[in-house]
Every structure is written in C-alpha cells, then in structure tokens.
Amino acid sequence: MQILVTNDDGIWAPGIAALAEALRPLGEVVVFAPDRERSAIGHAITMHNPLRVEEIPFPVEGIQAYVVNGTPSDCVKLGAEAILPRPPDLVVSGINLGPNLGTDVIYSGTVSGALEGVILGIPAVAVSLATYAEADFEVAGRFAAHLVRLVQKYGLPPDTLLNVNVPGLPLADLAGVKVTRLGTRRYRNVFDRRTDPRGKVYYWMAGEVLDLDDDPEADTVAISNNLISVTPLRYDLTHTGFLPELTRWPLELAKDDQAQSAPGRQYGCSGEPSVPQGGGQP
Question: C or N terminus of the chain, fewer CB within 10 Å?
Fold first, then answer.
C-alpha cells in the first residue's frame, strides 16, 4: 500500500513526522507537505502562481518527502496527479496540532488535504490532536495506524473521508472511541484595531470558541468526554431535505420581467460604468 501523507502545519511540524513514523510499517509512505504553516487555509488551490516542488531529506528514515510552496490541496493534487507514477492507495493528513471539530472542518487545511484525496477518488483520513499544549503525538499516531488498517480491510464509500480528533491525553486516560457527527461550534470573534509604524490601521483577529452542542453524538462533546472522535465527512454540501420545498418556489422569471425592469448602469471588466450607446452620460 502506498500512502500519501500531507498536513497544514508545514513539512517540519513534529505531527507529520510522528504520522509518517506510525504509518511506515503499513506500506510505502510518501510525504507531500507545504513549505510553511497553512492552518485555516481551507480548500484553497494555487492557480495564479507557479508551484515548486523539491525532494528533501525527512526526519524519519526511509521516508521519501517533497516540500511544496502551496496549500495542502496543492500537495495532494501534485503528488497524486503529477509526481507519483500512480495515484496512492490512501491519503492521510495530519497530525494537526489543535482540534478540527464542528465548523472547524470548513476552514481546516488538514481536513481539506484529506478531502482533496476523496475528490480524486482516493480513500482519506484526517487526524488532529485536540490540544494546543505541549503535544505528544504518539497516541494519535498509533490510532491513525490502527484506523488505516481498518480502512484497508473494510474500505470507505467513494465520497467519504474520516475526520479523527484525539484528546491530548495518555492512552490510559482515554475513555474510548466514539463515532460522531459534526458538533455545533461557533467563534466569538474579536478584531483588535491597531496602527502600524506608517500610521495605517490594520486588524488582528482573535476569538473564543463556543461549543453549542450537548448531544453525546457530537464530536465536540466526545472530545470533552476524553473520547477519540471519528466522524465520516462528505464534500456534497447539498441540503437534500430542502430540495422538495425549494422546487415549489416560483423561481421562473415572468416573460415581461425584462421589459418592466428599469435600465441600470452597465459595467465592464474594469468595474467602471460604461457609456451607453448614443453617447449619453452614465
């Protein structure tokens, strides 16, 4: 089995080395990771700048590793579609320092790296250590390897990844493993208004996380109960339950709507209003 490993904390983060070390006995591990931290970059891809890839020595012996000046999604795309002679059998992203719970998954570069694998038709797992304190990735690495063996044995649906969050605790202190759904999580954002040395105003965003779910099936609750959380995720964001109601809306434009609409300014690509035909003023 060939496993492509990526992350959003960067190629030199200790979490990705711990993950590669844990997965090494399971097959050929190849690392494609960003050249710097790309946390909270979501599913961004690089379209307007060249991508550069360099093979580098990696801290874990026997691991082939590439550093990319792009995002986690770029790393998986490049590895699977351009660098490796064939697509990998599995994509594993992590081990992230900090949780990816609830709505975090929308912003997470860690989850997006795994999701890119799913988009390419490759089974994928995202792994996060749910702490920002001094981190020991050993338990998370062991669980990642255990889960990969299960994925290899049982398989995953073609449009599904597993999002894993592991409490930052010794194995003896964990309460077990829970299959979960995404919890309800919000952030109370604070924008600190500051002034730079040139006198220009800028803002620094900070915030406090608010977990609004008390359902024991939620990933946020599982982590608070010292359980490893495993959540199956899909990239299809369609609200299927709303589709029947939406089809009953009068969405069609009436034939006379265009004639009744007042003429507005016409804008070109520059964003400036264009002069109407006949030389009139906009």
Answer: C
